[in-house]
Amino acid sequence: MISKFLDQYKELREIVAENPELPIMFMASEDCSNPDYCYVITQAKAKIETVAFAEEGIYTDEDELRYEIEAGIASDNPEISEEDLDKEIQMEMNTIEWTKAIVIYIESY
Question: Engineered SS bond to 53: which of 1, 48, 94, 100, CB 3.0-4.6 Å?
Fold first, then answer.
């Protein structure tokens, strides 16, 4: 799953590596969001984070991912015991790959 994201941003990584002195600016067209929730990008912060690419989404917080996995398992198996739930969560957590990434947090008005 990680390779999909690496390939998607290959050109961006190359441009940044070749031009480290240039600022990085993000511009989003109106087509990028729901008109009811348009954003004007006012600031972007970049951090190196350890991230997980999971079916549920992309996570930087292990506890948040664990919570989402727990909710999904409990929803699918409402009568599961606490012990079995913990085992299922741990098995799922063990399949998820974590990697370092440059994460860009975009803030709006």
Answer: 1
How buried is residue 91: exposed, middle or buried, by Cβ count under 10 Å (0-12/13-18/19+)?
Answer: exposed
pTM for the structure as a whole: 0.64
- Structure token digits, residue 36: 């009811």
58/40 Cα distance (integer angstroms): 23
Domain residue ranges in the chain? 2-108
- Residue 92 has which token pair? 């799922």
Could you give the dihedral angle defined by the CA atoms of residues 25, 99, 57 and 79, in that order, rounded to the nearest 10 degrees? Answer: -160
Separation CA 9–CA 83 (nearest Å): 41
